[in-house]
Write a structure and sequence with these properties.
The chain is mainly alpha-helical. The termini are far apart. It contains 18 helices and no strands. Helix 6 packs parallel to helix 7, helix 11 packs antiparallel against helix 12 and helix 16 packs across helix 18.
């Protein structure tokens, strides 16, 4: 994705708003003061970066462009002058050298290892952050942008450490969202790299209230990328969807799902009506209630059969969708929907049965059910009767009685008709079972008679 961000349209300028001049002036003053503190201990470079002669590069006999120079390798500590201390013509090349210095990733597992190099890199990152915030990105050509994202990539794309509190086999699943987060030892550098990237993306519109945590930085940066680069929006939505699928069907563990859901919620709120076809692929019901039928059928298609916890989550999601479903869309899917709800009502897991019965606490859902009671009550009546007579949990038993009474008060004739149908069905089932038992007894008697006639011993 970052490779796609390197090329920036020419002539783009930051939007100006009231009060922006005062903000820029204050930022400039702060940058001058900060750079003065950062570079007070750094010896200015007196040797030309191009030819190695002791003169400033502006007097160098080489007339090649700065962007065409090959950067020397930065293997050790190299003291560089501040960007504001060199002529403007030398700043692009010096900027690249500072990026190369910041591309070196230090080992923070040992706090006593290369402390001077770490401090130099930290001060250099601070200077780059202030430089981008005050000067902006208009003077960064494509070569500098490429080096910029190479530096960012080298720092933030890394293997995350395995948590020391990983669960043992068969133990409880670790939830990273509920644990107190532990800062990466390299956070003094990572924070500045993220701040640099964020200021590059938003230029002079940086939000000073952004949270100083890595996931919050990533969330803000991804949201700004989505807002500024329209061509990347389908790719970002597809990538987020793929991560969700991997989380649901494969790993069941991802540290950034909560932040991605927040981003997706913000994206959905920004959709314009009528929805485009590409937006309907993810089925955003809150924006267009006509998608409710498709969404509900999709939920039923992936309904969990053996995981009670997931079934409770699906019932929660189902209630949210039904809350914004209109009668016309509800009628299209109510038959398969309440067949599944009937099975959930009869679940031996009390939380599943209780959550299914809690659907009747919603006034909107009760209104939809009341309008279509002639279809819905016959589907779920059997489940309600079985719960009221034989469910082991008292809470489920009490909620079932409340739902039965609601239907009885709503339409007594329909309730009595369903009750008679249920009793007839149970009587037929009981008679069929008695007939089956009698047949098995006759078969056993015949088998015993044949065994006795043959002089064999029947094993029971």
């Amino acid at each position: 994705m970052f490779n796609k961000l390197i090329r920036k349209p020419k002539g783009s300028k930051a939007s100006s708003r009231p009060g922006e001049d005062e903000t820029s002036a204050a930022a400039g003053a702060m940058a001058m003061a900060t750079e003065g503190r950062l570079t007070s201990n750094i010896t200015p470079l007196s040797t030309c970066n191009r030819c190695g002669i002791d003169h400033w590069a502006k007097d160098c006999p080489s007339k090649q462009e700065n962007a065409n120079h090959v950067l020397p390798p930065t293997n050790g500590l190299e003291i560089l002058p501040a960007l504001r201390d060199v002529p403007s013509s030398e700043r692009p090349f010096l900027f690249r050298k500072k990026l190369a210095l910041c591309s070196i990733v230090h080992d923070f597992s040992d706090p006593f290892r290369t402390p001077k190099e770490k401090e130099i890199k930290r001060q250099t990152l601070l200077e780059l952050v202030e430089y981008v915030a005050t000067v902006g990105t208009a003077k960064l050509n494509e070569v500098l942008l490429e080096d910029t994202f190479k530096m960012v990539t080298a720092n933030i794309f890394r293997s995350l450490p395995v948590p020391s509190h990983d669960p043992a086999p068969g133990g409880d699943v670790f939830d990273a969202e509920e644990e107190e987060p532990i800062l990466d030892p390299a956070w003094p550098h990572l924070q500045l790299v993220y701040e640099f990237l964020l200021r590059y993306l938003v230029h002079q519109e940086t939000d000073p209230r952004v949270a100083k945590r890595e996931r919050d930085y990533l969330k803000t940066i991804l949201h700004r990328i989505y807002g500024k680069f329209m061509v990347l929006r389908p790719f970002i939505r597809k990538a987020i969807s793929n991560i969700f699928y991997r989380f649901i069907f494969e790993t069941e563990k991802h540290n950034g799902v909560g932040e991605m859901l927040e981003i997706l919620g913000s994206i959905i709120n920004g959709f314009a009506l009528p929805l485009k076809e590409e937006h309907k692929l993810f089925l955003f019901v809150e924006k267009d209630f006509k998608l409710a039928d498709t969404v509900i059928r999709g939920l039923l298609k992936y309904w969990p059969l053996t995981n009670s916890h997931k079934e409770v989550i699906m019932l929660n999601e189902l209630e949210e969708v039904l809350e914004i479903t209109q009668p016309a869309e509800f009628q299209r899917c109510m038959v398969p929907l309440f067949r599944q709800i009937s099975r959930s009502l009869n679940s031996s897991h009390f939380q599943v049965a209780e959550r299914a019965l809690m659907l009747w606490n919603s006034d909107h859902i009760v209104s939809l059910i009341a309008q279509n009671r002639n279809v819905i009550l016959p589907i779920i009546f059997s489940a309600l009767e079985k719960n009221s007579m034989s469910h082991w949990n008292q809470v489920v038993h009490g909620l079932t009685q409340n739902v039965r009474k609601m239907f009885q008060d709503l339409d007594t004739d329909l309730f009595n008709e369903c009750l008679k149908t249920y009793q007839d069905k149970e009587s037929k089932a009981k008679a069929l079972e008695e007939q089956r038992d009698a047949m098995w007894k006759r078969l056993e008697a015949a088998a015993a008679a044949n065994t006795s006639a043959a002089g064999l011993i029947m094993v029971t």
